[in-house]
Specification:
Length: 128
């Protein structure tokens, strides 16, 4: 399973970015996908997850109301729309997938240990 993140970059506070996670040789159907971030000197933080089979989502308090996770079945991607970005959102953003089959559970988790495959990350810098 190969995951590739894209869409990172430099943005001013209050701006928006859309990250995309694309899988090669793998379909997200019936799996849980998570977005994480890590900034220097800090632990990796789970910020959002999606249960692909039923669309259930979850968000960390730090991004709730500003970030939106979604799936594009046709493109086989899971995207993270980030609005009203703050300087503290600066980090490397990673997507990851739990390879266990998950169907219709109505929930997903953001503990890093439950995820098996990770992308290489994309840098997001929020600065004026």
């Amino acid at each position: 399973v190969q995951l590739v993140e894209s869409g990172g970059g430099l943005v001013q506070p209050g701006g928006s970015l859309r990250l995309s996670c694309e899988a090669s040789g793998f379909y997200f159907d019936n799996h849980i996908i998570g977005w994480f971030r890590q900034s220097p000197g800090k632990e990796r933080e789970g910020i959002s997850c999606l249960s692909h089979s039923d669309g259930a989502t979850s968000y960390a308090d730090s991004v709730k109301g500003r970030f939106t996770i979604s799936r594009d079945v046709a493109k086989n991607t899971v995207d993270l729309q980030m609005d009203n970005l703050k300087t503290e959102d600066t980090a490397v953003y990673y997507c990851a997938v739990d390879l266990a089959i998950s169907i219709g559970t109505g929930r997903c988790g953001m503990g890093a240990r439950m995820y098996d495959s990770w992308g290489q990350g994309t840098q997001v810098t929020v600065s004026s």
